[in-house]
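Obj.: predict assembly geometry.
Materials: sequence records (below).
Method: joint structure prediction, all chains together.
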Amino acid sequence: MAKLELQNLNKTYTSKIIPVKDVSLTVDDNEFLTLLGPSGCGKSTTLRMIAGLEEPTRGRIFLGDEDITFKQPGDRNMAMVFQSYALYPHMSVYENLASGLKLKKTPRTEIEQRVTEVSKLLGLEELLQRKPGQLSGGQRQRVAVGRALVRRAQVYLLDEPLSNLDALLRERVRADIKQIFAAQKAPVVYVTHDQTEAMTLSTKVAVLNDGLIQQLDPPERIYNQPANLFVAGFVGSPQMNLLTLPCKGRSAILGDANILLPDIPTVPPEIILGIRPENVRIAQPDDRQVIQGQVYLVENLGMHNLVSVRVATAETEPLTIRALLPPEQKWNNEEIRLALPPQNIHWFDVKSGDALK
Ligand SMILES: Nc1ncnc2c1ncn2[C@@H]1O[C@H](COP(=O)(O)OP(=O)(O)OP(=O)(O)O)[C@@H](O)[C@H]1O
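Observations (raw structure tokens):
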């Protein structure tokens, strides 16, 4: 198996539409890379260039040592799973699974053997004679994945394969995808705008916005050390609190609290403090930096309450902090004292949006 490498990949449609800007990354044969980002950020265009369905305007694509930038899709030995499943409606599941191999003139016995193997793996044995129209969404998606697997490709590409499934089924198929592709030992590139899929499936995540990679890291790092405001705000649900605060001396001012700034060479007039709702907690008597506020909304999420707290400030409009708090605590519109543990605070530059180390 070989490593997939994108070098400074660009796609330009017009001077206004540049969906992919200078994307460089590598995916090793035991890696599952997810391209994660909002609609229109260039995920699918990147994937389509890897597949050969779209020509890059600039940049190179390598598979191992071979430059495949302009190779025909059929000559790339890559298998792609589409969001729309792309099954042949008039063919049975068996024929759908076998069709790619038949085109390649694979011997019949080998086709039978591979289709049997894959249908066992995906639990499709009972469905082989049915047509796609007689399958549920989840079953169709399994057939689409099966079509890619029978190919025994060098690289697997998946474009939002779970987006047509309901929430429950999505969780099940997601777990299947994780197990199945981990066993393939080939580079996998997966496209999604769903951060849960990215976090649960991937060994590496490339967060894209406006055609640019914002951060390329393992999921834990993306979550715990977001490189900039975009990643901090896009990854995590409920979203990270991001508060623009004035600075005074070596502190940022939040309501009555002075929050010690990180060790930065020059203190700017304003700074952005980020903290995830799950890291905000009720203040204890020995907490030093305590934020006082007023509860104005409580949303029951089952495992937690998402409590929105308004904090009065001297210079600006009141700020809102959201905290995930235990469900046994009931809150009305009352005063609350919150602590922001220093180790969970992220700092960002107001101008560039970059994380401050
Ligand atoms: N053939 C095309 N001609 C002109 N613009 C295009 C073309 N294909 C895509 N685009 C534009 O390129 C940008 C990126 O599109 P792309 O499909 O890669 O985004 P995406 O991140 O996959 O979005 P989604 O999640 O909505 O599929 C979008 O602004 C889109 O409108």
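Conclusions so far: The pocket of adenosine-5'-triphosphate is lined by residues 13, 17, 19, 37, 39-45, 193 (CB under 6 Å).
To do: check interface contacts against the pulldown list.
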